[in-house]
Amino acid sequence: MKFLRFFTPYEWFLLITIVSLNFVVFVVTGEWEALSTIATVSGVLCVVLVAKGHMSNYIFGLIQVSLYTYLSWGVGYWGEVALNGLYYVPMQFIGFFMWRKRRKTKTTVQSKVLTRPQRWLLFITCVVLILLGGLALDYFQDPAPYLDSTTTVLSVIAMFLMVKTYAEQWYLWITVNVATIIMWSMAYLREQEVGHLIIACMWGVYLLNSVHGLYLWKKAAKEAALTN
Description:
By secondary structure, the chain is mostly helical. 82% of the residues lie in helices and 0% in strands. It has one domain (2-227). Helix 2 runs antiparallel to helix 3, helix 2 (9-29) runs antiparallel to helix 9 and helix 7 packs antiparallel against helix 8 (169-191).
């Protein structure tokens, strides 16, 4: 019973949804991709725990990013490969130790927000880097250069904000989720690979969680500001 109460009804909805989507894809297509299923379920567990500010998210995050690197390699999304393999994997360890320094309780952290000038700087930096990244990926014949650049650049910055416990990370995650859903849907239409459809479904659940996470982290940051 304690385990059941650990997640809120909405969080259970997200977890049940990703498991159900995997099952539906299997029934409709008659195919099951084990690595995609493990990656999607562990990924949703990770982001749900991030939204809760719970440090155990890094365990499931390490599983997800490792498998996602392999799956992205197979599609040729080199921005995603570099992002997950070279950045996300080591950041799971860095993030864990950074969160330990900002613990509110034994297992959760306290969120904070950027100032207005910092938000403008964040916006300008994101736009410039996305454009430059898109040009570079287009040169290397990436099938979706600007979408890949958007997900890569914003994910790098969002992960940094996450490690530093800033609530604004969720605005970037929402954008990343939308772009990545489009990207993996395009991959499925090109190759008709069931694993790509499962990954797209995972990012759809990520999107729902990001909206939920934004609400929770902004609320927690306001409460922290009132008590300080």
